[in-house]
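Sequence in, structure out. First:
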Amino acid sequence: MNLKSDLDITNNHQQRHYDLDWLRVLAVLLLIYFHAATVFYQGELGEFYIRNNLLSPVLGWFIFFVHQWHMPLFFLISGAASWFSLQLRTPMQYVNERFKRLLIPFIFGTLVLVPPQVYYKLLTHHENIGSYLQFYPQFFNGIRPQGNFEWAHLWFVIYLFVISIVSLPLLLFFKQDMGRRWYSTIATFMKQPGAILLPALPLAMIEGAFRPKWFGFQNLYDDWANLLLYFCYFVYGLILCFDTRFKQTIVQHQRLVFFMAIVTMSIIFAIQVTEVLPVRGYSGEYILYQMLRGLNSWCWVTTILGLSQQYLSFTNSILQYTTLAAYPVFLLHQTVLVAISFYVVQWNLGIAAKFLIISTATVLVTNLFYEILIKRLNIPRFFFGLKPININK
């Protein structure tokens, strides 16, 4: 049997969950446009490696909206993938596969793909750091924000690795008879009116209790808001695929969760526009706002899952190609985007033109790298988390 990369989706009966495959591919593609938009953004979510002189309020709202649900969706899909992966492996094989698919690409990416991003960032600040070869040893001088060392967008990979290992006992529990009975009770209860919103309660509590202190610096060891939030979504992903009744419940209550997503997002937008949000801290108003964000995130993720089940449960040649390419593209895209952005922001063009050039060029160049340098060569495939090609075929 051919085993795909970490995020590939297969169920117990070896049938593809094409809706989840599509969501993963589209989420990676959206991430490219999201990061292209951050070149024209400055706000509470931080500052990107490259920043255009002129900023875009429209792209700022786009970033704010996508940020609400995009990474939670990633971790939910990853939870589903981990569940399916464990069905094909023993626990030790599962752990070994996590090392190959996640930890090795993370180490490789941190040493090879992240330093160019830091280099271009320092160049934008006109720091005298010499050539890239002269800079590279300086990459290890201290940890961000005091130093240069960081893991950039690869935080997702190391978080996923840790969460997928820590959650292994829970995965094994669901494979046992007791776990199946426990889940069956939950799946039956979730069919009750309004019960689809109950999984948002832990998310809202995490946001309210932890976000005021840990706003979102992804350093793993001191980022409890994100770590707990994404762990919940990861667990929701494996629960989603354990029993088809949960997916049926999502479709059944799709109108309700979509309505709630619109209402809560409108309130959040209104709070941002009117600037009535208090300073970050443990005030009642700020805690309620963060709890609202937790509810809104779940509503959007659930809405997207429902729509994907209705409209994306099919396959074609595009999906077959991009399913394998998605993970290497994710690993590569930000390095390519930062390099392209460094030069494009210096051109005398409008924001729309620069955004389209940066995003389109990143999609094309990243996929070109995958096609030429990764897809057909076993050594690069190993470092980018893909299974080797069987050269004996």
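Second:
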Amino acid sequence: MTDKTNPPGKPARGGAGLEEARLRQQAIGVKLRHMFDEVVNEPVPDEFLDILRRADQRDEGTGGA
């Protein structure tokens, strides 16, 4: 995507440039939140769950901490 109104190396002028920067930041934020939500909602691999279960059992056997 090429921005012909504000070529590279030239600072944005006035409110239009600031508004464009805000819109870009907002779009990046939306994309990042979407990506984060996808990662959070991924299932945990069985191998990792097994490791956590074994660690919990070991902690219970030694009295915690």
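Remark: The two ends are 54 Å apart (CA to CA).
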